[in-house]
Amino acid sequence: MGASVGLLASSLPLPWVALLLACSLALANRAGRILAAVAVGLFAVGLQPVVEPQLDHQRPVEVVAVVSSHPVAQRDETFFRVDVRRWRQRHRVAADVFALQVTMPLDKSPPPIGATVRLRGYLKRPVGFANQPTIDPGPWRMRLKSQRFLELESSPGLLMLIADRLRHQVEGAIDEIARQDSPGTALMRSLLLGDRSKLPKAWQQALKHSGLAHLLAVSGLHVGLLALLLLFSGRLLPARFRMVPAILGIVMYLLVVGPRPSMSRAAVMGLVALAALAIQRPPQGLNALACCVAVWTVHDPRILGQLGFQLSFAASAGILILLPAFNLRWSLVPRGLRGALAVSVAAQLATMPWIAPLSGGVHLLSPWLNLVAIPWLACCLVLAFVVLAFTLLIGSGDWMMALLDFAASPVQALADLGPFASLLLPFGVSPTSSCLLALAGVAVGLWPRRAVRFVVLAWCLAQSGAVKCADPELIVLDVGQGDATLLRDGRQAVLIDGGGWPNGDLGGRVLVPALAAMGIRRLDAVLLTHPDMDHCAGLVDVVRYLPVSELWMGPGWLDSRCVAELLAANIRRWRVLWQGEVEAVGRWRLRVLHPSAGARRGRNGRSLVIDAAVDQRRVLLTGDIEQAAERQLTDHYLSQNKRGGAAEWRRFDVLKVAHHGSKTSTSDVLLRAVAPRLAVISCGVGNHYGHPHPTVIERLQTVGATVLRTDQQGMIRLRFRPEGPIAIELPGQPRVSSGK
Q1: CATH architecture of the domain with residue range 473-737
Q2: Taking the complete model, does pTM exceed 0.70, yes or no?
Q3: Given this structure, which CATH class describes domain 61-156?
């Protein structure tokens, strides 16, 4: 049992495993034997090799795979997952097994779960983000442009055909009672099926910010409530058959939802518990969890590396192990609250080694919010099950959708509440430090009277995790194909653009953890150069996690969709900046060079251009302006210099290259006027735009500029010291200087 429970913590490094084994030998008792078994399990997992297919991304590949999930429709596309069994690329054939996410047009028919298919296309994989902390590469992906690139090799088995049929019936029932833009329908799909595609992004971010994202995972609460409802309905049956409805219901629900890690764990544990009750034995939670781990490890050892598996089993193990001790020690907590609070705290502490580094902080009020959220979720689930049952059995459940719409209102209220430090305390923490924080939290729970020393230890660890600097800094973050630049001086900071994706949560996944690692807990302002998605969408994400005082933008963007989303995301103050405006962020002085107050034509050409100066150093931030705007800019300031005007146009120390290095920008005219010593380009690895263009690199080298690129160096951190050269820090590389 201990070894099976130990498998869930497979991300721990081997030195920690050795320390755990040493502690088990020192204890030399029952607890020591359990720790030893856990250490052996961890060591076995650590030795498992990770096999990655060696593919040429520029050439098409043919794969034979088994469909492993039900399809999910989102916007104009359908997504589903497959497990690749073998692949062929030109003359190379391999039998590597790996997971693949497939996308195809919405109007095409996706294959049923369990089917064996042959797919032809290009395999791609996100390369991750080289900030601090780094973000690992995403899953392999294939986009099918036509149905002719998909062939059905063999039909699924009987069980998978039943699963596909059940899924279609449930989705058809939900669609039958669905109303356009109904929050209740979106909530119902998310709670019952784990399908978040219709759930507003702001709701998902609000739940994540408050530490309640687990509410959207189909897990033990869903299975437990369904089992209780079916056990209650089975009371009229003979004693020997009373468990049958619950067992069949759990199996059918697993088939409908699909083999998600949390759902699979909950279903297996539920079935084991029902089997124990059937033979009149008290259920043993740890035994059920160990059986589940063993079954899934044998069936698919690759699941040990999946985050969903690790979180689900860590939370379950934490509750089963820590709950009895917390209930015993927390004698001062009222009995009615003690159990629920202990469950929430135990689950949060057990999952902290994974959650804290990913979210960039700790959710301080999450245990207390769960005291309200869990009963609310239980009521919503019961209502959703009842609505679904009415619709499936008698075809009339739409009259109850108003109740679900009302039940969804607390999530909307949470999204409207906005970011507060009491919900998410951002700080940079490594996996090792988060493990120590979790251990400190367990110690506080077990020995409340000695809690002060552990709280002090946890606070010291939290403070030591942030990368601090007394000098003014410019940090160009790696956001892939986009722009995100941070200007900071101590605790004062402004984020200029924020990258962006068409889907997903770039802010929560990439920007907030990176800002937290630098000690940024709030932003004095976010500055939008122009509202293109790859500059603006990430800002919308960020302002839903971190407090932001103001929004700065150029003229003419107030009616754009992205600005409307920013203003709706709890930003109360905004300013329009144009040529000649000056702002300050600590010792940084930001002077707007472009556009003029009356500019209304064009899009990239109206990007804000900022002259950022600190300690006699100057940085030119150019947004996405192109050569026409560059000529206007240089002509205007050169003519003012000739007339003896106040404007000064001289050599800049750093140039933030415009438009990711596009050949339509960074003209010879601009470079001759600016003559930068250092040029920084923000672009994505292997982007299909070809950024930066070779001619731009050649122009920069001609004027003697040192070129740094986020697609090659990752995050670029420039420290402007009062004396000496600009310090350049690159992730994983030694510190260098740009010269005087």
Answers
A1: 4-Layer Sandwich (3.60)
A2: yes
A3: mainly beta
